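Continued from yesterday's entry.
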Amino acid sequence: MQLSSKLLNVKYELRGPVLHAARAMEAEGHRILKMNLGDTAPFGLEAPESVVVDMIHHLRGAQGYSDSKGIFSARTAISQYYQTRGLMQIGVEDIFVGNGVSELISMTLQAFLENGDEILIPAPDYPLWTAAVNLAGGKAVHYLCDEDEYWWPDMADVESKITGRTKGIVIINPNNPTGAVYPRHIVEQFAELARKHDLVLFSDEIYEKVRYGDVEHIHTAAVAEDVCCLTFSGLSKAYRMPGYRAGWVAITGPLVATEAYREGLELLASLRLCANVPAQHAIQTCLGGYQSIEELIRPGGRLHDQRDLALELLIAIPGVTCVPAAGAMYLFPRLDPEMYPFESDEQFVLDLLKEQKILVSHGTAFNWPRPDHFRFVILPSVVDIKEAVRRIDTFLAQYRKAAEPLQ
């Protein structure tokens, strides 16, 4: 069997050679310290008990197919949630429920792109966006985010990348892997670019509830009511249930401009019959009532304090700097290229894995153009965070020593 040519430009290095090497080492009996996983479950961050109980209660009634767009109660809860956030234009029929946001990213792009159409995607990005654009026949074009400006998008660079083939812009806010949360003026500039160049906005907001301090999250659709906008979110992060695969996309903008597209997306949703039904019953329970994520992200909360600890320890390593994460569950440290002149950051994380039995993700896997960053997950325990940073420091010390001038 031959590999389809559709896959030639599709990459997802987060589950590529480095992960395969880690699995091979585990098969040999090595214990790997995993600082690469954005999955909450392995680290003891479990779904709220009330959600699990509610899903069990509905199991017998969730054995058949649902409406291809999702069960009515789930879509109603999503619509009401956005309306409480000021997005009064989002109704039940504007919402599609999927098997996580990942499935919906692929579906929405397949329904939208012609071969050769360009989509602007941030660098660094969550690499599924780049892969899904390429798989749908489009071309991913990366605009730069500015590390010196809190990892906010360089809006001049964004506009400079727009061509006659550009059809849309992806916004990942809060951002994975940098943890950046974009202020209102940045989100408004995206909306203005969409108006000016007749573009669609794809706003990935899966981490919208995972924010630290007094940082505010601005929904893209809230400042772009007259623009075609797709808002993605779900239960995997804020409610610690990534394996349940419950996500959604809400379509806003002029109905006459989105009508044909909605029909195409409904066709694709029907072809996969429906999203898994038991998890859909969790959506209403999650979006209503007490929001348990709040106790994790405030001072004294596990995510808040582990973010602070990881940041403090990482920047104490000579030649390592890091912008504090305003949201999400990651840090994106920078390695001084003069002190650590790695030609390949993938080789760096492979060598780190083999020598120190620790797994992190290399920065170019997130389509960052230079081999000088890596992603560090803050989900593991305090003990594991301290040990992980100690091993990274030990590994990097070899390069610092080699770079020292001879006495």
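--- second protein ---
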Amino acid sequence: MSGFDTGSTGFMLVATSLVMLMTPGLAFFYGGLASKRNILGIMIQSFVSLGITTMMWYSIGYSLCFSGNGAIIGNFDHLFLKGINSLTPFANGDIPLYLFIAYQMMFAIITPALITGAFTGRVSFKAYLIFLILWQVFVYYPFAHMIWGGGILAQWGVMDFAGGIVVHITAGFAALASVFFVGARKERISKPNSIPLVAIGTGLLWFGWYGFNAGSELRVDNITALAFLNTDVAASFATVTWLIIEWKREGKPKFIGLMTGAVAGLATITPAAGFVPVWAAALIGIISSTLCYMAVDLKNKLKWDDALDVWGVHGVGGLTGTILLGVFASHAVNGNIVDGLWLGNSSFFFKQVAAGCIGAIYAFLFTYIMLWLINKITLVRVSEAEELLGLDASQHEENAYT
């Protein structure tokens, strides 16, 4: 018999399943926003990560993120989960290590898939597969280790409850780099093919985010409940804020805007979910929608062709949440964190600002360089004829609708 806590183990199994569901949810979200010619092309980029990233995580990913004492990256001690079995406990002793491995794997799966919304309809599937592998090894794994695996940023005192830096900043700024490298679409005027499909994706993402954030406590306790409530409060305030801003500016309440606001709020509360009081989560929701809306508006004015607003929502949202954690963090709320700027601790605030900027700059620069290198192997962007035909037909010889 094991000594694992059955309540925490059961909850973490559910939380892991919820985070897994977010990747198909993302596929529906992006698939609905894409043009009719590129529905399957964008959806397969999410679904293929379920397979490839799992293979990578089992073989090298977990070991590079969570073994060894390296400052930047782990070591190869646990390649193919060597030395781990079903009775091996996670550090807190409440759950099996296998469960922690599976939970963290779901984060690794969805993070590169987030990037794909930026270059929808323009990138070949072959180039994307190379990108998917290399980006995880050289961007995701180092930041997961530096923050969650005991690396240099964790030693410095940087905090990230559920992935503001590790997931959203890295993916969002990698998306911006990909937009600059790949260039604009030939036909930029592209209406969503199915708003109901976007709604299904949003619902699955919001539902899954409870596992994403509350599950990051890695046990069942008061912080689990706090993270759960903060997630919903921030998302709800962000949803209504975006709706009001867009309604005032465009004269009509927009459903897609409402759903975009929800995702912005969810991304922004992620790094702070278990570290701030509920009133702060409400403020974070309002601030997140305001800043993310402004970022999307700026992107449109500058004519950056981030097709599905990955940078404006995830990049800016993740950076905003990371910085606001530095403002609203409360030791009284969670004894594992120091107070933030609001309570007089400027040191932690500046650490969060610096870590967020480091993540953004590194992800942007490495992604751009990596795409340049991939382009030497196989063309990243499809031909003009393939693009105008659509990736569904030109890359996969399939159609979403007959």
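The mean pLDDT is 97. Residues 346-377 form the longest helix (32 residues). Will compare against the first tomorrow.
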